[in-house]
Write a structure and sequence with these properties.
Structural class: alpha+beta
Largest sheet: 7 strands, mixed
Helix content: 55-70%
Shape: elongated
């Protein structure tokens, strides 16, 4: 039996192990997705084919993969869709790119790298929205991106890097003004904090893309820093930064065997712009050494880069600038990316026009116009307007028509008029889109201001609330103190009344001694004895006043159970002689003042414990034998006892027990108890009383009866 169980366990372990190992079929799918990722900028059409092939294989075995390899299936399924979306975007097929992105959005299944792939889909969508001149929506999409993912580090870092690249491009090419400046500076600072050299450079292709975005951003900041930055030298600072990033990119190209036309063309375009800026501003001469180094890399890699023209190192003139720019233009033509081709032709013509070479600019402008017209004519008429190529090129078309008019590319007045009309149309479309985006940014700025105002208002309300709460607490505290003072005053009045009651009790007891002392014919010895007793009575009177409770002895009639009284009294009892203190069960209910009964019982028990050195002190209760309307409570001890002849003196202040143990304590406590019993006799049913049974050296029993609750 044990061998059989071991065999089953072994089979399960082997089965689980096999589930973790990819099959050849799965390895092939994963390989196709990896190839699609690697070829994304080298050859977008080839990348698209790889991703599509991965999808085909996933569909062919979807039932098995979903059932047995759920995570693998959906990870690779969404990876392929995002690759196709990116490739279609690069090829300017925005409708298909949108279809791929929506499939990612619409997928209900959860998978391990879901959050990263959703972020990537948002980033690609944002890129597409920028190209479609819907910059405000791109801005909203980028806000949704969250690339903090720990399972797929490479994919997460690539998504994070693409997020920054997209944000930089959004503010480099689709925004103007102070907002552009502030956002670029903020994004550059964020990138530096994310450690460009480690986390954001996933592979050489992404490194080229990131460095290009950083170079362009720094160039933009160098141009506009004088307008939005008061510090001197910021333009030179950012220009130096742009050259540093370009140098890093070119060094990376120098070290790698393979470089995409797309990446090289971007870098060459940027280099041409830097050389053009040097010619315009002598402050930039500090970067000449770095530029010499960059040009040397290009010359040494002429075969790899496809450079077929000589570059004279150190000669920064218009010919060198245009030579580099023209080579970048030829590389963009090979990428088959229509948007980049038209943008490149427009840039070449702009540079020629700036240098006054109108004839050289014309061919590029005519090529750009014919290329746009060709794409627009051959485009599917059923394609939604938003995805039509013409809808994405209004800004570039505007530049092309302006260039055609400036260079007088036609002598026909009708053609020139038509071009001017087209320029106005494209300019209006570009203006409308920019106006919408500007309004969005204005509204967003207003929203930020409103949020700031709301924050201040909220903080002000909190401060006011705290102030009012403080005032309220202060007045409440003052009111409470006034109430306590009034209560204390009332208690003092009650205490005075209690003292007056006590004094009225003793006035009767002291009067005989005073009258006795006033007689002339009384012997001195008797007078002395009377005087001593009067002194004792006075001392007892003062002691009684002092031991009166701070609240006096007001009577509050309630019904209560004696067990509760016993329990409460037991908490405050001290037992100096460590004798056995016993509280018998007393479920009886009585009518009276619970507080006064506790005072009386505590007094009796303390007296009993004080004069009991061995044995016990017992507290008990029962129905009174002579009258069931009362309950008898007894405090019994095994102490020294009281002589019979002194029992009738226990409740008189002038008859205090004066032996060495009891002076000043025993008799007067019973006097207070007698007063409490009298209060109960007055306030409840007549008949409440207290009495003592005692025998010397055997102990004492003190009994009192209270009205029973019916």
């Amino acid at each position: 039996m044990k061998k059989f169980l071991l065999a089953i366990i072994s089979l399960l372990v082997i089965s689980c192990a096999r589930n973790d190992v990819l099959t050849d079929y799965q390895i092939r799918i994963k390989h196709l997705n990896n190839q699609a990722f690697k070829e994304r900028l080298y050859d977008s059409k080839l990348s698209l084919q790889y991703a599509d092939s991965a999808l085909v294989l996933l569909y062919q075995d979807s039932v098995n993969l979903i059932e047995n390899h759920h995570d693998f299936y959906y990870n690779n399924f969404v990876r392929a869709l995002n690759s196709m979306a990116y490739d279609n975007f690069l090829l300017s097929d925005f409708e298909k790119a949108n279809e791929n992105i929506n499939k990612v959005y619409d997928l209900d299944e959860s998978y391990p790298n879901e959050d990263v792939e959703i972020a990537i889909a948002n980033i690609i969508n944002a890129k597409m929205m920028m190209r479609l001149r819907v910059s405000w929506e791109a801005d909203e999409l980028l806000k949704k991106c969250d690339c903090n993912h720990n399972i797929h580090d490479t994919l997460c870092h690539w998504a994070n890097s693409q997020y920054y690249v997209t944000k930089l491009f959004l503010n480099c090419f689709y925004r103007d003004g102070k907002y552009q400046y502030n956002e670029l500076v903020k994004t550059l600072n964020d990138i530096e904090q994310d450690n460009v050299n480690q986390q954001l450079i996933v592979d050489e292709t992404q490194a080229y893309t990131l460095y290009y975005a950083l170079t362009e951003s720094c160039q933009i900041l160098a141009h506009i820093s004088n307008y939005y930055q008061n510090e001197e030298g910021k333009n030179v600072f950012y220009f130096q930064k742009s050259v540093e990033y370009l140098k890093k990119s070119m060094e990376l190209m120098n070290d790698n065997q393979r470089v995409s036309n797309y990446d090289l063309a971007n870098n060459l375009q940027t280099l041409a712009g830097i050389i053009n800026d040097i010619n315009r501003n002598n402050d930039y001469n500090i970067v000449l050494n770095d530029l010499d180094y960059i040009l040397l890399i290009i010359k040494n890699n002429a075969k790899k880069f496809g450079v077929n023209y000589p570059i004279n190192i150190g000669v920064y003139d218009c010919d060198l600038k245009m030579n580099i720019l023209l080579h970048a233009d030829s590389l963009f033509l090979e990428t088959k990316n229509p948007y980049q081709i038209i943008a490149s032709k427009s840039m070449v013509s702009d540079y020629y026009i700036r240098d006054g070479k109108l004839e050289e600019a014309r061919p590029y402008l005519i090529f750009a116009k014919n290329f746009m017209d060709s794409i627009n004519e051959n485009e599917d008429p059923n394609l939604p307007t938003i995805y039509k190529f013409k809808n994405t090129t209004s800004k570039m078309a505007e530049r092309v028509y302006v260039g055609l008019i400036k260079t007088k590319a036609s002598d026909d007045p009708e053609t020139l008029t038509n071009w001017f009309s087209m320029y106005q149309s494209e300019s209006f479309k570009a203006f409308e889109k920019e106006k919408y985006d500007f309004n969005y940014m204005e509204l967003r700025s207003v929203d930020k201001e409103n949020k700031k105002k709301m924050t201040y208002l909220f903080l002000s309300i909190i401060l006011l609330f705290i102030a009012f709460a403080t005032i309220y607490v202060f007045f409440r505290y003052a009111h409470r103190n006034n109430r306590l003072l009034k209560k204390q005053k009332q208690l003092d009045l009650e205490r005075i009344a209690n003292v007056e009651t006590c004094l009225s009790i003793f006035r009767h007891d002291m009067s005989p001694y005073i009258m006795f002392l006033q007689r002339d014919n009384v012997p001195d010895e008797i007078k002395h004895d009377a005087l001593q007793k009067l002194i004792v009575t006075l001392n007892n009177t003062m002691r009684w006043i002092n031991i009166s409770t701070p609240n006096g002895l007001p009577f509050k009639k309630t019904s209560f159970v004696l067990n509760d009284v016993f329990e409460e009294v037991a908490k405050g009892i001290t037992n100096p002689n460590k004798v056995n203190l016993i509280f018998s069960d007393a479920p009886c209910s009585v009518l009276g003042d619970k507080n006064l009964v506790e005072i009386m019982l505590r007094n009796l028990i303390n007296n009993a414990l004080r004069y009991t050195t061995e044995g016990y002190v017992k507290v008990s209760a029962k129905r009174y034998d002579k009258d069931k309307k009362f309950v008898q409570i007894t405090v019994e001890d095994t102490g020294c006892g009281i002589p019979k002849e002194r029992l009738d003196e226990l409740f008189r202040s002038d008859k205090l027990i004066e032996n060495e143990k009891s002076i000043g304590h025993h008799g007067f406590g019973l006097m207070l108890c007698a007063y409490i019993i009298k209060k109960h006799d007055d306030e409840t049913q007549r008949g409440c009383k207290i009495w003592v049974e005692s025998e010397v050296n055997k102990g004492t029993k003190i009994h009192f009866i209270l009205c029973a609750t019916i």
